[in-house]
Amino acid sequence: MKELIEYIARSLVDDPTEVSVTLRETERESRIELSVAAEDMGRVIGRQGRVANAMRTLMRVISSRQGVRSSLDIV
Amino acid sequence: MEKKPSLEVIAPTVEEAVTRGAAELGLREDDLQVEVLDEGSRGFLGISARQVRVRLTVAPAGDVPAPKKEAALKDGAPIPATESATDDDPEAVQAAHDTVAELVERLGLEAQVSAKWGPKDPDARIQPLLVDVNGDDLGILIGRRGEALTALQYITRLIVAKELKRPVAVVIDIEGYRARREQQLRQLARKIATQASDLDRTMELEPMPPNERRIIHVELRDNPSVTTESVGEGSNRKVTVIPKG
């Protein structure tokens, strides 16, 4: 799941070197924290959070197979 | 110059305004020139405090200027009209193929990905770049009401547009889902139109995403006994079928 968000974020931002993704896993939840350069925040959030929500939907493709919940925080 | 038909739409986002306007006009989004009259206010984290207002003009046939390769894809900038010449840029095919293949792999799925330019829609001037994904157990990649497929296609379009510095109408299908769904929706549209007209009552369909609502609108566009209209907001937006006369 980390690789998925890393790939998407690096592909969308102007400054891929500032992309960092942390995965925190518990038994019930996979929690991803994504951080990007301040100028790139809009690109990974999108208007009304559309980009972030699309990433969340794709994360569920993975987590639902593992029987866990997933969450994405952009920090 | 002759005045072209135009339509002003107010919506939470530019994308939504374009989608609604296109459905209302019975046209593809790529057939419209978009002028942002009011960008709205973004509010916090993209939650818009004031709605955006856009003017949509039907792009003139034939003399649409080709989009500039270096055209900026900034939020709120006018979306360049689709060029009128047939596109056969192999770079775009490669970019779309590779992006989908990379995403599918990172989703932990095994699938064959193929990409090619589709035929230009004779009705509209948009030319889709078709990406087919085939394999076993890909229902999860379609999702409930196609939501995973929609997300995959949205992210792919963003990545390809960023790489090529121009928008490309990437259309992803998984195991023929889109074609089957379109057939279902067209049948449903005709059935509901008959009911609306027989009962002389306005019929309401279940909420649908914009692309599915458009299929209903287009299917019934020339129907002599009914008109169609979308009502409701956001993910609750649905088509109503209204008997004429």
Helix % of chain B is 25-40%
| Element string of chain A (H = helix, E = strand) | HEEHHE
Give the largest chain-chain interface (CB within 8 Å). A-B, 24 and 30 residues
Topology pattern of chain B, helix = H, strand = E? EHEEHEEHHEHEHEE
Structural class of the helices, strands and pairings of chain A? alpha+beta
Quick tags:
heterodimer; A: 75 residues; alpha+beta; 3-stranded mixed beta sheet; globular; B: 245 residues; GMP Synthetase, Chain A, domain 3; 3 domains; 3-stranded antiparallel beta sheet; 9 strands
Structure description:
The complex is a heterodimer of chains A (75) and B (245). Chain A has 75 residues and is of the alpha+beta class. In chain A, 44% of the residues lie in helices and 25% in strands. Chain A has a single domain (2-74), classed as K homology (KH) domain (GMP Synthetase, Chain A, domain 3). The longest helix of chain A has 17 residues, at 50-66. In chain B, helix 1 packs parallel to helix 6 and helix 2 (90-106) packs across helix 4. The two termini of chain B are 37 Å apart. The model of chain B is unreliable at 60-84 (pLDDT under 50). Chains A and B meet through helix 1 and helix 3 of A and helix 2 and helix 4 of B.
Task: Give a quick summary of the entry.
Chain A is of the alpha+beta class and about 80 residues long. Chain A contains three helices and three strands, in the order H-E-E-H-H-E. Chain A has one domain: K homology (KH) domain (GMP Synthetase, Chain A, domain 3).
Detail the topology: elements first, then pairings:
The complex is a heterodimer of chains A (75) and B (245).
Chain A: H1 2-12, E1 20-25, E2 29-35, H2 41-45, H3 50-66, E3 69-74
Parallel strand pairs in A: 2-3
Antiparallel strand pairs in A: 1-2
Chain B: E1 6-11, H1 14-25, E2 32-38, E3 52-58, H2 90-106, E4 112-117, E5 129-134, H3 139-142, H4 147-164, E6 170-174, H5 177-199, E7 203-204, H6 210-219, E8 226-231, E9 238-243
Parallel strand pairs in B: 5-6
Antiparallel strand pairs in B: 1-3, 2-3, 4-5, 7-9, 8-9
